[in-house]
Design goal:
binds zinc ion, 372 residues, P1 Nuclease, four-stranded antiparallel sheet, Immunoglobulin-like, alpha+beta
Amino acid sequence: MKKIIVNSLFLITLVFLCAGWGPLTHKKIVSKSSLSFNDEMYGFKAWIPFLEKYASLPDLIRETLPEESKNHFIDLDAYAEFLEKGSINPDYNDLIVTYGKKFVDEQGLLPWATLHAYDSLVVAIKSADWGNAQIWTAKLAHYVADGHMPLHLTTNYDGQQTNNKGIHRRYEENMMNRFMDKVNYDGLDVKEIKNTQSYIFGYLYSNYRYVQGIMEGDTYGKKMAGASDGDMYYREMWNKTSDFTVPLLERASNAYACLLYTAWKNAGSPVVGFLGEDKIFAGKDVVLKAIYWDKDEMSFKINFVVRKRSFVLLEIRNEKGEKVKTLLKDTLWVGDNTITWTPDNSVLYGNYQVILNSPDNVQIKVFPFCAN
Ligand SMILES: [Zn+2]
């Protein structure tokens, strides 16, 4: 019994910590990726608003598809060969022969999830399947960004081995959200990638080097502030880590642009198409239709249709991507549904997102909540 409790706690911690960068950082990375686009890539600029909105798509997918969690990290230093020579065998099938599938899967599948998203993007572009191309590219951008988050590359992902417990959330979200307006950079030049596998593993190895700097920044911040929270701690932490954190984001934006460019080249450089969300999601089993304000009831009404019996998770999140309310978490039969959200007094005016999440299908609508 005790073992079961320990295991499930571990799983909860793992799921909680696997978000990658926070939603605002993911959004920043994709929005700035267009600064790296060359002239040939002008057609992709129309995709950017969709990408910004769905920058955390794989993190949302995880909520209804637990096996997705493994795609967001790789504990490089769990491999003896990485500690010896700074690299691992990049072939998944070779690795499982050496270490066993269970071990390899537990250390995380980030590089292979990135490659899979890249390959799927090439296929979608080649077949002019622009809806799927936009979804795969959102996933690709997310995994590339996670690969530039050093704490997603180590067994010491939460500082638990070095007396820096809790650093994961403090660094990736709390600190980043505080200093987001200080993250400024231009686009590095885009280039075509010859070998996508070695390119992806290459940036993982070089980003791993910053694990130590993050731990040092945390230790220093705690020493100066006498706490691991508050303005002073985060200021010191930012001062110690921004010199490499901002370039990590800059390289993430560029790496995504390079992979997108390479995918398009390998798909035969077609004229780039674009589909609106209504069309992208039209054929799904569950479709988010509308959200509107009901003046009489002082409530929002969210309308969606279920075409095939499905599990549905319906949530309200704020602009930072933080959960405000879970409206529904249930398996639904076929039919038309209207769910009510009545914001209570604690809900501030601003932009909100309604997120409809069913296995492997996430739809988002952004709406304002303001004085009516
Ligand atoms: Zn992630």
